[in-house]
Write a structure and sequence with these properties.
The complex is a heterodimer of chains A (328) and B (329). Chain A has 328 residues and is α/β, with parallel strands linked by helices. Chain A contains eleven helices and seven strands. The chains are: A alpha/beta (328), B alpha/beta (329).
Chain lengths: 328, 329
């Protein structure tokens, strides 16, 4: 009987703080949660003629959104439009522009009309050791992936702020798991994707008062044409280290991305490893769900241990690979 | 009853010990010490602010120092200031970090580098819709692309150095590179980007005994900071007040100490330590004791982070509410 009393006491000592923590988190998580409908709303997707962007466009159209896709190549845009028409019976708008061209993007946004969900999905990903990366490629990657996103956001923001319907709207930035951890061969891609986080965190604070909600999506390696091309040229060590995360299909990634955007989540992860990475890298990012916040607080320590184990594995692989090469 | 108590107590003592020993076995890369005495320290943005202070302290510790900046007059003033302060002559070289060829020449003329400190940077704050597109391009160009230029230029010399002692590449980030705040979208983006570079770079260069450090100073009392303060948005000032300001010589001292221990993340004050634990993510940790602190306090740090977010978003809400009331009248 005494034994069960002690057990009860111990149980209460564990449950009570947990319960208090959950209640406290429910009171403090900011910004408040938001739901962003996409049906009958204008979804504007950059890099929308191929890969994840194309899958996003198809799924958004199928869900009843009015979709505009932007890319540089007009032929590819026309093929994408035909593909979506065949798949869904729906016509999407197409607009050709380079995200780095300030005037062209302004025109593109004006011609498309007020945007409800802006998805900055354009991106290029060269991989090589920094000493072998061409300076032009470094500049181009940062221009397209990071500066191009600033350009898009600046162009779309006035229209979004002064929109006539006052429903919540969304700005979604397509990052990458490389934007949560830098790995061998991905200095510039990682730098450009990490940069999107700085933009997202600051931007959310700047636009929350206008009921604009920012999402940062972290897909893993995704089976697209660009990925297949890049995978052939990947350095052996990049392959070994990147294998720590699994590859996903385009449709799954697009589905997770859209769901995350619709629930107004700040961080959107796409698979279980992505979920763990999100906990480890939560940092000072906003969390709108008090339950997710609870999971982050409780598992932060475990996530850091798992991260340190991965680092041990990666640095071990790097050491072994160099030792083998030196022996040869 | 006694058995249940004992097991729980044992667990509370044994578990941390087990975690500590486990971490001792797995932390990578291994710890390292980087000497700076009699070694070549090359500092970009070294004619003012934190860079100038780093140059002065490194010279005082016996390093051979080169400072790089764009403005030759300022470089000469900096050289004089250091000579008066330490009686040591530093090299000066004028180049724009955005000009890769100029940086390459500067690096070649300076000679093999042992400690490369990429400290150059500009910062201007404004809400993204009011930031000039040219300003955004400049901030990202100088702070991020400029750092890639400097690293690429210096790396071959560092890899093929004749003395095989450990060398260091240091990137000067900011607490804004650990959390984005109102008015700092472009600056935060450029500083966050340095982390992507640093994490990947460390994996690429570890085999050459090259060690990467990422330094996170808070607001630091420099001329540029005082200038920028005058133009700060009210909400940026409110939110940035969550962290305390430091003097340049303290920041430089913490930076040099961090570099010499080969630490990957270098923080400068207590709030920096909290931020650092909160944002450890998947960054390397060479010290098993620091790793233990990170693991134990990770949850607390996230909790504190969420509290700050509550405070910031409330301030934003209140500020907008006040403004809307004023506009009604």
């Amino acid at each position: 009987m005494a034994f069960s009393d002690i057990s009860l006491l111990i149980t209460l000592c564990i449950l009570f703080p947990i319960f208090t923590l959950i209640i406290f988190l429910k009171l403090i998580v900011r910004p408040h949660s938001a739901k962003i409908p996409i049906k009958s709303r204008h979804v504007f997707i950059t890099g929308g003629s191929s890969g994840i962007g194309l899958a996003l466009a198809r799924q958004a159209a199928a869900e009843g959104a009015r979709v505009t896709i932007l890319a540089r190549n007009l032929e590819k845009l026309k093929e994408a439009k035909s593909y979506i028409r065949v798949e869904t019976g729906i016509d999407v708008n197409i607009v050709s522009a380079d995200v780095c061209d300030v005037e062209a993007i302004k025109k593109a946004v004006e011609s498309a009309g007020p945007i409800d969900v802006l998805i900055c999905n354009q991106g290029i990903f060269p991989s090589n050791k920094v000493e072998n990366l061409d300076i032009k490629d470094i500049k181009r990657t940062i221009d397209v992936n990071l500066f191009g996103t600033f350009n898009m956001v600046k162009a779309a923001l006035p229209g979004m702020k002064n929109r006539s319907d006052r429903k919540p709207v969304s700005i979604a930035l397509m990052s990458s798991q490389s934007g949560q951890v830098g790995i061998y061969g991905y200095t510039v891609y990682s730098a450009s994707k990490y940069g999107l986080r700085g933009l997202a965190e600051a931007l959310q604070q700047e636009v929350i008062a206008h009921d604009i909600h920012v999402s940062l999506v972290f897909p893993p390696d995704t089976k697209t044409l660009s990925y297949e091309e890049e995978a052939k040229k990947r350095l052996p060590l990049t392959k070994i280290i990147a294998a720590s995360s699994s590859t996903m299909q385009v449709d799954e990634v697009a589905k997770k991305a859209l769901n995350g955007i619709k629930s107004g989540s700040f961080f959107v992860f796409c698979n279980f490893k992505g979920f763990m990475l999100s906990i480890a890298t939560a940092g000072v990012s906003p969390q709108r769900s008090y339950l997710k916040a609870f999971v982050e607080v409780i598992f932060a320590g475990a996530a850091r241990i798992v991260a340190l184990c991965h680092l041990w594995s990666w640095y071990g692989s790097i050491e072994k690979w160099h030792a083998k090469r030196n022996n040869k | 009853m006694a058995i249940a108590d004992l097991s729980l107590l044992d667990l509370c003592i044994l578990l941390p010990i087990f975690i500590l020993l486990f971490l001792k076995l797995i932390v990578r890369p291994h710890s390292v010490n980087i000497q700076i005495k009699s070694r070549h320290v090359f500092i970009t943005g070294g004619s003012r602010g934190i860079g100038l202070e780093l140059a002065r302290q490194a010279a005082a510790e016996g390093a051979r120092v080169t400072i790089l900046a764009r403005n030759l007059e300022r470089l000469k003033e900096a050289k004089d200031y250091i000579r008066v302060s330490t009686r040591i002559d530093v090299n000066i070289v004028s180049a724009d970090v955005c000009d890769f060829e100029a940086v390459k020449e500067a690096v070649e003329s300076a000679g093999p580098i042992d400690v490369l400190i990429c400290n150059h940077g500009i910062y201007s704050g404004n809400v993204v819709e009011n930031l000039d597109i040219k300003e955004i391009k400049s901030i990202i160009g100088i702070n991020l692309v400029g750092t890639f230029n400097v690293v690429k230029a210096a790396l071959p010399g560092m890899k093929y150095r004749s003395d095989r002692k450990p060398v260091s590449i240091v990137l000067m980030s900011s607490q804004s590179g650990q959390v984005g705040i109102y008015g700092y979208s472009a600056y935060s983006a450029s500083k966050y980007g340095l982390r992507g570079l640093a994490e990947a770079l460390q994996q690429e260069v570890i085999a050459h005994d090259i060690h990467v450090s990422l330094v996170f100073p808070p607001d630091t009392e420099t001329l540029s900071y005082t200038e920028e303060q005058k133009k700060r948005q009210p909400l940026t000032s409110m939110i940035a007040a969550s962290s305390s300001m430091m003097q340049t010589d303290e920041v430089a001292k913490k930076t040099l100490n961090g570099i010499k221990c080969g630490s990957f993340f270098v923080f400068c004050n207590f709030k920096g330590l909290l931020l650092y634990i909160g944002t450890a993510g998947v960054s390397p940790q060479r010290s098993y004791l620091m790793a233990f602190v990170e693991v134990v306090f990770a949850g607390v740090a996230r909790f504190v982070g969420l509290c700050y977010l509550w405070l910031w978003y409330r301030s934003i809400e209140k500020w907008h509410a006040k403004r809307n009331i004023k506009q009604c009248f």
